[in-house]
């Protein structure tokens, strides 16, 4: 799993370059991402290449959301594949984190 971090002004962008976020990848995901978002005020997850998320992957993303919120930060998600978005809506994740179709749209809403 490749995690790419970049900055756009004061927004930390985390791009997950993996087709799947499932049980075998959760430890690596958390070990890579949680330190990158600690104490950050604005975080954007770009999920463009992600095509499958299982329940453990949802839990890992929720852990990241909790971490950013605990640090009084704001997190958004963009470029969500239709299948993944449907899952996020089914578990009502869209009620706790804003989701956008494009990175530009998400950046404009920080």
Notes on the protein architecture:
It comes from Desulfocicer vacuolatum DSM 3385. This protein is α/β, with parallel strands linked by helices. The chain has a single domain (2-105), classed as STAS domain (Transcription Regulator spoIIAA, 2-Layer Sandwich), CATH 3.30.750. It contains 4 helices and 7 strands. The chain has helices at 23-37, 55-70, 82-90, 103-108, and strands at residues 2-8, 11-17, 20-21, 42-46, 52-53, 74-78, 98-100. The strands form 2 sheets. The chain has a 5-stranded mixed sheet. The chain has a two-stranded parallel ribbon with strand order 3-5. Strand 1 and strand 2 (11-17) form a beta hairpin. Helix 1 (23-37) runs parallel beside helix 2 (55-70). The longest helix has 16 residues, at 55-70. The N and C termini lie far apart (27 Å). The relative contact order is 0.18. The mean pLDDT is 95.
């Amino acid at each position: 799993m490749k995690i790419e971090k970049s900055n756009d002004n004061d927004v930390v962008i985390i791009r997950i370059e993996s087709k799947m976020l499932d049980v075998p990848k959760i430890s690596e995901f958390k070990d890579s991402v949680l330190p990158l978002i600690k104490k950050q005020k604005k975080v954007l997850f770009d999920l463009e290449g992600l095509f499958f998320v299982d329940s453990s992957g949802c839990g890992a993303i929720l852990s990241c959301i909790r971490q950013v919120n605990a640090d009084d930060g704001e997190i958004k998600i963009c470029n969500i594949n239709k299948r993944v978005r449907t899952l996020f809506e089914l578990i009502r994740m869209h009620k706790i984190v804003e989701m956008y179709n494009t990175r530009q749209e998400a950046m404009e809403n920080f």
